[in-house]
Amino acid sequence: MATDNFESTNRIAQKVFEFVKKYDVPTQITVLSHITTQMDTMRRGTPHSMIFQSIAGTEKTNDSFGVTKKLIQEAYQVAFEFGISSGLNLLYFETGQGSEVSVDADEGVDEMTLEARTYGFARYFDPFMVNNVSGFIGPETIYDGKEMIRANLEDHFMGKLMGLPMGMAPCFTNHTPINMDDQQIGTMLLTMAGANFFMGIPHGDDVMLAYQDTSFHDDACLRELMGKKPAPEFHRWLMKKGLMDEHGKLTAMAGDASIFL
């Protein structure tokens, strides 16, 4: 099992980098270890495209994450100097309603307001991407399917107002009354509302935190139902590999791992 240290972070990043370079995949590389671990590995030559960190809407919660405004600014400079990306957007944030109350740092403020504050904090740093995961904590923050769907639509709306490059992850832990039907309804609504991206977790089962997220097959299904296509660069790569046609429809080769042999 990977742990949060230089060795594991470097090993994962190096292996992904080898794959990306070998097959010329137009994508980014980041490893979800702590921000300070990523900074250390990047300074020592590990290939990262950007730096990841979870953030929240109160200072006390961010303190519990071991992150401050000053540290994020330092991380950006490290990514700018040592990272492998050519652009200026070098940070990847994760957010989600309920982070503050889960560590008793909500200061009596409701979850949606604190999530809006989080987006303001994120926007300050002009990130490459933000991933919203309202529902991943558990029933103490998002109790049932209606709450999960509502929270995700609220977050999507606020993210658009803030101009964030934000994707959605309508998700739920295995000890809540939420089920796959609720998640699929939420994901469909978010797709129709113009969500920028969803996660692609194998079978939708995040084994690290024991919760259900969106899967690769969810993403493919939603693209086909809604007439969407991948990002242009990635779409061209998929067509080059014979995995998708020009209309965004997967070919018979899609899912055949033998193309990498």
From TrEMBL:
GO biological process, one term: ethanolamine catabolic process
Keywords: Lyase
GO molecular function, one term: ethanolamine ammonia-lyase activity
Gene Ontology cellular-component annotations: cytosol; ethanolamine ammonia-lyase complex
Entry-linked Gene3D superfamilies: Aldolase class I
Keyword Lyase found: yes
Family matches, as Pfam families: EutB
Superkingdom of the source species: Bacteria
Entry-linked InterPro entries: Aldolase_TIM, EutB
Name by which UniProt lists this protein: Ethanolamine ammonia-lyase large subunit
Organism (species): Proteiniclasticum ruminis
